[in-house]
Design brief:
By secondary structure, the protein is α+β, with helices and mostly antiparallel strands.
């Protein structure tokens, strides 16, 4: 419970204080949801990616502190980052344009896509091409951002 304090008498040795937030948690907008795998925008320039080192996984969203709790695969640690910073500098890996490998039942072999697709477009492409919908991204060939995300 909060009290309005006009002339504060602070006693930091004996009391614990917290500052009343200036916002409501519902008003905070965040770009990512729990479980999203994200990558830094700078790495989406065609540079080969390493699925174990270059990605962060959103584990929790703390709206009261405006922070994402993310799992850093490269360091094998959990870290906290400001929502605003992550939303500006990172992109969901499913939105990046990647080459994909899939099983082509016509050739009965694994095949690489000729073009880069994001995950959703790749699945749409595979629905028209083959009956197996099991695309696997090829991170070593790098990722690009779509023109609307640059």
């Amino acid at each position: 419970m909060y009290e309005e304090c006009v002339t504060p008498d602070w006693n930091w040795d004996y009391m614990i204080y917290r500052i009343k937030p200036k916002f409501k948690e519902e008003e905070i907008k965040h770009k990512f949801k729990k479980g999203d795998t994200i990558v830094h925008n700078v790495l989406c320039n065609g540079t080969p990616l390493n699925k174990d080192n270059n990605f962060l996984v959103v584990e929790d969203i703390n709206l009261s502190e405006e922070k994402y709790e993310v799992y850093n695969k490269g360091l094998d640690t959990f870290e906290f980052f400001d929502i605003e910073t992550i939303d500006e500098e990172y992109v969901n890996i499913d939105d990046c344009l990647l080459y994909w490998e899939y099983y082509d039942d016509n050739y009965e072999a694994f095949t690489k896509t000729d073009l880069r697709y994001n995950k959703e477009d790749c699945i749409d492409y595979l629905r028209r091409t083959t009956s197996y919908l099991t695309p696997t991204p090829i991170y070593q060939l790098g990722a690009r951002l779509p023109k609307d995300k640059k």
